[in-house]
Amino acid sequence: MYSISELATAKQHNIPVTWLIVDDGGYGILREYMVGAFGKATATELARPDFVKLAEAFGVPATRVAPEDVGDALKAGFAAHGPNVVVVETLLKMFGPPTWATEHPAPTTRELAANTLLKQIWGF
């Protein structure tokens, strides 16, 4: 909710900007971190407004879409002639294992020992 006042400014000056609000019901990134680090999350759920109604209260058109419809909603928003808001209710997974780490697992102790031996034999 950092951009609430910007809605008023964008409407007043008819600035063609599209906001994408990913409504995860609270501090989603902190929730995911806490669960991963401590096994459970506390105090990460928020009482939150209806973001569509909030935007409309400023006179800014808004739409709520399903995750699979975000692309089409953003294309429509980018084509609009003034400010608009797209809201999607979903949970994002921010802390999945990086692809590189999944595809390139850390070497085993045996592999490290073999590599060290080869370096000693060939001198590099």
Structural topology:
Elements: H1 4-12, E1 18-23, H2 28-38, H3 51-57, E2 62-65, H4 70-79, E3 84-89, H5 99-103, H6 109-122
Parallel strand pairs: 1-3, 2-3
Care to count the β-strands? 3
CATH class: Alpha Beta
Helix content: 40-55%
- The total of helices stands at 6
CATH topology: Rossmann fold
What is the residue-averaged pLDDT? 79
**Structural class category:** alpha/beta
Beta-strand fraction estimate: 5-15%
**First-last Cα distance:** 56 Å
The shape is: elongated
Describe the protein in words.
This protein has one domain (4-96): 3-Layer(aba) Sandwich (Rossmann fold). Helices cover 45% and strands 13% of the residues. It has 6 helices and 3 strands. The chain has helices at 4-12, 28-38, 51-57, 70-79, 99-103, 109-122; strands at residues 18-23, 62-65, 84-89. The protein has a 3-stranded parallel beta sheet, sandwiched between helices. Helix 4 (70-79) links the parallel strand 2 and strand 3. It is elongated and about 70 Å long.
